[in-house]
């Protein structure tokens, strides 16, 4: 009986986990999230755990205002929200790269998974190569210059 309840709970949870979440900027310049974006705003699909962002296309709805030109500059509030999102993303990427480098420096027995799932321990040369690559990635992610 417990197994049936557990399976039912897991099935219900998996349905919720596959929900689509949208992100958009409202008229006040605040970033909003929800499962149904309002009509007339540009909304992007937020990549969730287990999703593949490369296979998702941003969702957009037609803009009701025809007075705007396609190349009109964004409002200062929208630009500020975008700049904040970009800065937060860069900070996250920098922190992840630094954490990876720190793990490679502090790790003693580093390994990768083999074809059948077994641990294959890295040689000293492979570890050094991984450390150099991680250091370069951290420097690139944390540099203040724009791409």
Shape: flat
| Computed structural class | mainly alpha
* Beta-strand fraction estimate: 5-15%
Give the strand line-up of the largest sheet.
2-1-3
**Overall pLDDT:** 77
* Biggest β-sheet description: 3 strands, antiparallel
Give an overview of the whole structure.
The chain is mostly helical and 147 residues long. Helices cover 45% and strands 11% of the residues. It contains 3 helices and 5 strands; from the N terminus they run αβββαββα.
Short description:
The protein has 147 residues and is mainly α. The chain has three helices and five strands; from the N terminus they run H-E-E-E-H-E-E-H. It has helices at 2-17, 76-106, 124-142, and strands spanning 22-25, 31-34, 44-45, 111-113, 119-121.
Question: What brief labels describe this structure?
Answer:
147 residues; mainly alpha; two-stranded antiparallel sheet; flat
What topology emerges from the helices and strands here?
Elements: H1 2-17, E1 22-25, E2 31-34, E3 44-45, H2 76-106, E4 111-113, E5 119-121, H3 124-142
Antiparallel strand pairs: 1-2, 1-3, 4-5
């Amino acid at each position: 009986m417990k197994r049936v309840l557990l399976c039912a709970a897991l099935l219900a949870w998996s349905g919720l986990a596959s929900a689509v979440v949208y992100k958009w900027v409202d008229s006040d310049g605040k970033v909003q999230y929800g499962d149904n974006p309002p009509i007339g705003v540009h909304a992007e699909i937020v990549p969730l755990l287990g999703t593949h962002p490369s296979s998702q296309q941003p969702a957009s709805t037609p803009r009701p205002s025809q007075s705007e030109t396609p190349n009109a500059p964004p409002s200062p509030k929208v630009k500020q929200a975008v700049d904040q999102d970009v800065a937060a993303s860069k900070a996250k990427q920098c922190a992840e790269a630094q954490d990876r480098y720190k793990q490679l420096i502090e790790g003693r027995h580093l390994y990768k998974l083999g074809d059948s799932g077994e641990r294959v321990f890295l040689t000293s040369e492979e570890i050094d190569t991984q450390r150099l690559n991680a250091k370069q990635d951290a420097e690139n992610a944390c540099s203040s210059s724009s791409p």
